[in-house]
Design goal:
Strand order of the largest sheet: 1-2-3
Number of strands: 5
Shape: globular
Number of helices: 2
Radius of gyration: 13 Å
Order of helices and strands: EEEHEHE
Helix content: 10-25%
């Protein structure tokens, strides 16, 4: 278990979550999950993490220069 890290994004293989990338101090760390990925954050952190991970309406992600993992049409309020 790691503590005091800031998750930057969820890692995917195709459309399946396989791990996370996080920052601890000045180091970027990638971790691959053994069986599943469970990520929780607060009311602001969760939507931000989903956007940074490529899970939002495709047009919104592309406008931010973020690769689209899954087009979640209708999930964001504009």
């Amino acid at each position: 278990m790691e503590t005091n890290g800031l998750v930057r994004c969820i890692a995917f293989s195709g459309s399946r979550a396989t791990g996370v990338e996080y920052v601890r101090g000045r180091n970027r760390v990638s971790v691959t999950a053994g069986s599943g990925v469970i990520v929780t954050a607060d009311a602001i952190g969760t939507p931000k993490l989903l956007i940074l991970s490529g899970l939002e309406p495709a047009t919104h992600l592309r406008s931010l220069g973020i690769d689209v993992i899954r087009d979640m049409q209708g999930s964001a309020k504009t």
